[in-house]
Amino acid sequence: MIIKKYTKFRMFFCIPYSIINMVIEMQTKMLDIDIVKEISHLKNEPKWMTDFRCKAYECFKNFPNPSFGPKLKINFDAIHYYKRVDDRVHNDWNKVPKKVKETFESLGIPAAEKKYLGGIGAQFESEVIYHNMLKELEEKKVIFCDTDTALKKYPDLFRKYFNKLVKYNENKYTALNGAVWSGGTFIYVPPHTNIDRPLQSYFRINSKQMGQFERTIIVVDEGSNLHYMEGCTAPTYTEDSLHAAVVEIYVEKNASCRYTTIQNWSDNVYNLVTKRAIVEEGGIMEWIDGNIGSKVNMKYPCCILHGKKAKGNCISVAVAKGVQRQDTGAKMIHLAPLTSSNIISKSIATKGGDATYRGTVYINEKAHHSQSTIKCDTIILDEQSTSDTIPKNEVKNNTSTLEHEATVSKINPEKLFYLQSRGLKEEKAKELIIMGFIDQLREELPMEYAVELNHLLKNYF
């Protein structure tokens, strides 16, 4: 471990010793078992979690990279696996370190909290630095905290759901997350609880060659509802960074959960995440997924429809520009009768970008009278860009239905001509056509997020 000096930061730590004007940063030429144990020690974790991390690390060493999708050229020896700028999670914005506060204020986070959010968490590098929630939600016994706090404050509840839906030994990046995870969000919504305002977390990678490995667990108990939103961003560096998160969501009987993501990682970030939800009888899970940034993005939000009449929906937009490789889609696993799923995937490729839909729908023998609809649409804006649709659809009974539609097109010249004939310049006309193309996603976003998405896309093209 190296203690690295930052003159602009003024803060105080209470780990084995006190340091002024410092930031804790794990730096090593190679991730090894000692680094994994040191992370657990710094976080003062119980022995079972240290043992879990060690098992996950052994899996990580032995797993190869995925055999599908974009080629991954990650130098694991150059990644910083743990970095924190304060030893506490603040609920008073004025107590957040000045540099961190300025970063989040420039992104509009405090303003969004005041306007319409029920609660917010902000993660800077490896740790959540700020967390707050409306008092009315606390009175409803809603738990909304960072995952590290949940491990210490709610150990039995945490252990009940941790690593149950996404196992550490599934692939190289779930194993890496298991070994070095830090931060993330823990939410528990008690039975029959209505939350009428979204909860949000914001994740920021601010250093070059940084790795961020948050772990998010969400439990929406019977008859309750939740809308959770997350935003992700990073500045651009010449060196690559890595984001390998794990999300586990439990939607109980007749509950509903909507998970909205707008990620705008810079084009030096590998975004390799595993997001999965299990949905019980009568439950509804919705993934609203906007993928604007990253160098390589591999993300396939999944719904396991485990209970009768469970529903899963995924609406996603992926934009690939230049060196970007967007390999995105969704997975719907039907395990019970009368279940339904709907996948809408919109992709845009420009200036040599590659936007690929990769999805799976599986309807097993017991999931009789189930139905699934998949619609994949892509716009390619030039001759250098590419797109593929790679579905895997399987129906194991003869009472269920599955429909899959895919289109790849350029901007319709007739539409472009019509808009230009009305006095619009070609650039503005193209912008309007693209905005109309992703309209289904924008309609599902809160107004502030829809405005932000519009802003991001206008700057993108």
Could you explain how this protein is built, in words?
By secondary structure, the protein is α/β, with parallel strands linked by helices. It contains twelve helices and 27 strands. The strands form three sheets. Strands 6, 7, 9, 10, 12, 13, 15, 16, 18, 19, 21, 22, 24 and 26 form a 14-stranded mixed β-sheet that branches. A ten-stranded mixed β-sheet has the order 5-4-8-11-14-17-20-23-25-27. Strands 1-2-3 form a three-stranded antiparallel β-sheet, with no helix packed on it. It is globular and about 70 Å long.
- Main sheet overview: 14 strands, mixed
What structural class do you assign from the helix and strand content?
A: alpha/beta
Q: Roughly what fraction of the amino acids lie in strands?
A: 35-45%
DSSP strand tally: 27
* Backbone CA Rg: 22 Å
Number of discrete domains: 2
Helix content: 10-25%
Please give the alpha-carbon distance between the first and last residues: 42 Å
What is the mean pLDDT? Answer: 81
Tally of helical runs:
12
Low-confidence stretches: 1-29, 109-119, 123-131, 234-238
Shape from CA axes? globular
Question: In short, what is this structure?
Answer:
With 461 residues, this protein is α/β, with parallel strands linked by helices. The protein is 24% helix and 37% strand.
What layout of secondary structure does this protein have?
Elements: E1 2-5, E2 22-26, H1 33-42, H2 47-62, E3 82-84, H3 98-106, H4 109-116, E4 119-124, E5 127-133, H5 135-139, E6 143-146, H6 147-153, H7 155-161, H8 172-180, E7 185-189, E8 199-204, E9 211-212, E10 215-220, E11 225-233, E12 241-243, E13 246-251, E14 256-264, E15 269-272, E16 274-279, E17 284-291, E18 296-299, E19 302-305, E20 311-321, E21 325-328, E22 331-334, E23 340-350, E24 354-363, E25 371-380, E26 386-395, E27 401-409, H9 413-421, H10 426-437, H11 439-443, H12 447-460
Parallel strand pairs: 4-8, 7-10, 8-11, 9-12, 10-13, 11-14, 12-15, 13-16, 14-17, 15-18, 16-19, 17-20, 18-21, 19-22, 20-23, 21-24, 22-24, 23-25, 24-26, 25-27
Antiparallel strand pairs: 1-2, 2-3, 4-5, 6-7
Helix pairs in contact: 1-2, 2-8, 6-7, 9-10
